[in-house]
Amino acid sequence: MDRSVKIALTRSLRQALQRKNTREAERILDRLKIEDPVSVETCGFEFEILLASQQWDRAQRFSEQALQRFPTSARVRFLAGKLAYRQKNYKAALQHFEESKRLYPHWRSNHWLARTLTQLGHLDAAEPILLDIAPNHPHCRSDLAWLYERKKDYDRALEQVTAYLKVYPNHERIKEQEARLRAHQMDTADVIGEVDMLSDLDQEIPEAILPQYIEGLLTTGKGKLARSFVQSKKDSLSERVLAQLAWICFRLHAHDMAFELFLLALTENFTNVKFLTSLEKTAALLGRTDELVDAYERYAPDQKNLYGRIKNLQRLIQSKG
Question: Which of 105, 127, 129, 269 has the greatest number of CB atoms lying within 10 Å of its CB?
C-alpha cells in the first residue's frame, strides 16, 4: 500500500463527508477499500457513510460486525452510539459513548454522552458536561437550552438560545424554540389570547406556541375549543408538533385527541418504544385497539418491529372478545 495514496484518499473522503456529498464519499471509499481494505480507519469511514446516507438497516448490520472486528476502537464505538441514538435506543447509545470516551477522551464523545443522558432524563449528570464544552463549541448551547427547557428553567434556556443565535442567527429550529420559550414565560391567558387574536386576523400562528396554547385550553376547561382547533389545523402541522400535542393530550387525559395525534405522528416514531407503548395504552382505553392494528399492518412490511406488537394487540382484542 502506498501511504501517500492512502493519505490523499482519506483527506478527500473527509472533505466529501464534510460537504455531505455521500455519492462522492462512496466513490472514494471504493478506492480506499482497494488500497487499505481491512484497517479500522477504512471501517470507520464506511460506517460513517452509511450513517450520513441514512442507510439504517445496513448500518445496523455493519455496526454489529464492526464492533466484533474492532471492539477497542473509540471511533467505531462512537459511531455505534450515534446509530443507537438515531434509533432512540438511548441505553445502548449511552454504553457506546461511555466506552468511546474511556478509550479516547474527546469533546465530541462528551457532547453525545450529554445528549444521551438528557434523553434518558439524567439532566443533572448531563448539565456539567455541556457547561464545560459549550464555551469552546457554541453549537452545544442548543443542547443546554433543551436541557433547561426539560427542567422547566425557561429563563436559563432562553439565555442559551440567545447565545446560540448570536453565532448561528439563521437556525430555524432554534428560532422556534425561542418562540416556544417566550410562550412558556407568558401567562396561560396571554398565550390563549395571542393565538385567538392571530386566528381572528387570519394570520399564521407559529407552531412553537401551539403546545402551550392547547395545554392552556385543556387546563382551563376549554377542551371543546382545543378539539376544534386541532381538528382544523392537524393537516398543516409538522409531525414533530403533532407528537408534542399528543403528549400533552395524553398527560392531561384527553385520550381521544391523543390517539388521533399519536397516529398522525406515527411515521416519525416507529422505533420509539415509549411513544408506541403510550399509543397502545391510549387505544386500549378508548376501545380502539382494532384501529391501531389496522394502522400497524399498513406500515409493518417496512417496519418489521411492528409485527410483534400486532400479535400482542390481537391477543389483547381476543382476550376482551
Answer: 129
Cα–Cα nearest to 135, from 103, 111, 170: 111
The pLDDT tens digits for 2-32 are 778 888 888 998 999 999 999 999 999 999 9
Task: Report how far apart, in Å, the C-alpha atoms of 281 and of each of 19, 250, 256, 284 are.
Answer: 44, 10, 12, 5
**The pLDDT of residue 283:** 95
Look up the pTM and report it. Answer: 0.74
Q: How far apart are CA 259 and CA 288, in angstroms?
A: 9
Q: How far is the C-alpha of 143 from the C-alpha of 164, rounded, in Å?
A: 10
Residue 264 in contact with residue 242, Cβ under 8 Å? yes
Helix 107-119 crosses helix 141-150 at what angle (to 10 degrees)?
Answer: 20
pLDDT given at position 207: 81
Q: How far apart are CA 251 and CA 230, in angstroms?
A: 16
- Single-letter amino acid, residue 297: E
The Cα–Cα gap between 248 and 159 comes to 25
147-159: b or e for each residue (b if 16 or more CB lie within 10 Å)?
bbbeeeebebbbb
